[in-house]
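Notes continue from the previous slide.

Worked example: a multi-chain complex. Inputs as given:
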Amino acid sequence: MSWSDERVETLKRMWGEGQSASQIAKELGGVTRNAVIGKVHRLGLSNRNGGAGSAGASAASEAPASETPKPAPKPAAKPSKPAAKSASAHPAKADPAPAPEEDKAEEAPAAPVTRIKPIIPAGQPLPPQPSTNEIDPKALAKVSEVEKKAKKLSLMELTSRTCKWPVGDPATDDFWFCGLPSQAGKPYCEAHVGVAFQPMSSRRDRRR
DNA sequence: CCCTGATTCGC
DNA sequence: GCGAATCAGG
């Protein structure tokens, strides 16, 4: 397999979308993630800058970017999920979130999305915006989505790499663990890691 | 343990 | 130029 123009294009696109090298390799087929990474480097787009031509030119100091101009209002999320405290306090409460349909440019088989979630106000292109953070709304939305396809594992079915996020009330029959694949040493899947580890900022105190 | 990207170096 | 092996995190 060689790096045909098309393949390189796909590589660039996916890399730009923030896809991991292994994902790209899998998509392209016939190459390993090493090959992908190697190519990425050779193309000089190892860093996620690439974009905006402006190659070379001054490369002295980087803008500190004190504040990201994000006009996106915060739709008072409804976080009932507990934030991992010190080293105890396990979350054990789940509220019947409506599970909004989050749709990306991924393969969406047949998702009758009737309700669109206008998180982004301005109707601009909105390319793969890295977004500094802003996990709250998104993370919560993802959790809701995730809980829909959670494997609902029982305690004994949990393995080293299954998400151990508890859902439901342990006192009822409606209790299970997420069970989705956790990634690295973390006890939770990506989505739950997102809510478990709050930036320690955000709502100082909750209204109650 | 699983994953990530980064780098090296023989080809 | 290519990519497996290796390195260095998480």
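Summary box: The helical segments of chain A are 5-16, 21-28, 33-42, 135-149, 190-196. Residues 50-113, 129-133 of chain A have pLDDT under 50 and may be disordered.
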